[in-house]
Amino acid sequence: MKPISEKPILEIEALTKYYGKGANRTMALDGITLQVMPGEFLGIMGSSGSGKSTLLNCIATVIHPDGGRITVEGIDLQKLRGGELAGYRGTKIGYLFQNFELLDNLTGRENILLPLSIHNIPEAEGEKRMGELAAWLEIQDVLHKFPSQMSGGQKQRVAAARALVLKPGMVLADEPTGALDSKNARLLMEKLAGLNRQERAAVLMVTHDPNAASYCRRILFIRDGKIFHELRRDVPEETRKEFYGRILKVTAQLGGGSANVLTVG
C-alpha cells in the first residue's frame, strides 16, 4: 500500500477554458479551483455541457486551458514539454475511457503490457504487475483474446488493468460504466473502489450516473463551468445507499437524472 501524504496530489487554481471565437465563444470552465488528496476517490458530476469532461481533459493534458494553473505532485502541467509531458501522461496518470480505447490488433495481454514496454519497465516486473491486476480484475481467461473476442465488461477491465499497470498516482476515469450492462458496471466499480483502497491511487471519475458516483467518497457537481455543490461521504456508518439518496437530491437540482445502471444495495 502506498503511504498516505498530507499534501494534495492535484491542485487546480482558477481554471478557465473557452471554446469558439467571437459571438460564438462559450466558456466551458469558469474559474474552477479544487484540490485532490492522495488516495481520494472523487466523482465529478454535471449535465451535458457543464464542463466536467473538459476539466478531466485539462488534467490529462488532452486540451490546454486558457487560464489558471494545474499542478500535479508539485509539477506545473503548463510548463511540461516533449519528454517531460510524455512522462507525465505515461507514468503520473492512468486514463480509463468509456469506449475502452484498446488496440484491436493486440491481445488483452499485449494491450496491458504496452505502456510498460514504452516506459522501459523490465519484462519480469511487467509480467508480475500484469498477473496481479489480471487476478484482481478477473480477466486471466481473456488475456490471450483480441478485443473483438471480449465482452464489454471484459474490455473495460482489460482497459482498467492497462491504466493501472504503471502504478500511477492518479487515475482519470471518463464515464467508465457508460458502455456496460448493470452486472459489469457493478463489478467494475467494485474493483475500481477496491484498487483505490489497496493502492492508494487517487481516482477522479466523471460520471452522469448517481449509482456509480455512490462509490466515491466526495463528489463535485459542476454547472455552467463552476462548482455548484460538494458532497462528502465522511461519516463511516453512512451506507452507499444513503449516500446515493443525497446524490439524487443534488442531481435533481441540476436537472439531471440517474441512468439506473447499477443497483444500489
Task: Describe it.
The chain has 265 residues and is an alpha/beta fold. Helices cover 36% and strands 23% of the residues. The protein has eight helices and ten strands. The chain has helices spanning 52-59, 82-92, 108-118, 123-137, 152-164, 182-199, 210-213, 240-254, and strands spanning 10-19, 26-36, 41-45, 67-72, 75-76, 93-96, 170-174, 202-206, 218-223, 226-232. It has a six-stranded mixed beta sheet with strand order 6-7-8-3-9-10, sandwiched between helices. A hairpin with a 2-residue loop joins strand 4 (67-72) and strand 5. The two termini are 28 Å apart.
Low-pLDDT runs: 257-265
Distance between the termini: 28 Å
Q: What assembly state would you assign to the polypeptide chains in this entry? A: single chain
Beta-strand proportion: 15-25%
Q: Report mean pLDDT, rounded to a whole number.
A: 88
What's the number of extended β-strand segments? Answer: 10
- Specify the number of helices: 8
Please state the CA-atom Rg, rounded to the nearest Å: 18 Å
Helix content: 25-40%
The order of strands across the largest sheet is: 6-7-8-3-9-10
Largest sheet data: 6 strands, mixed
Structural class: alpha/beta
Overall, the morphology is globular
N to C succession of SSEs: EEEHEEHEHHHEHEHEEH
Helices and strands, with pairings:
Blueprint: E1 10-19, E2 26-36, E3 41-45, H1 52-59, E4 67-72, E5 75-76, H2 82-92, E6 93-96, H3 108-118, H4 123-137, H5 152-164, E7 170-174, H6 182-199, E8 202-206, H7 210-213, E9 218-223, E10 226-232, H8 240-254
Parallel strand pairs: 3-8, 3-9, 6-7, 7-8
Antiparallel strand pairs: 1-2, 1-4, 4-5, 9-10
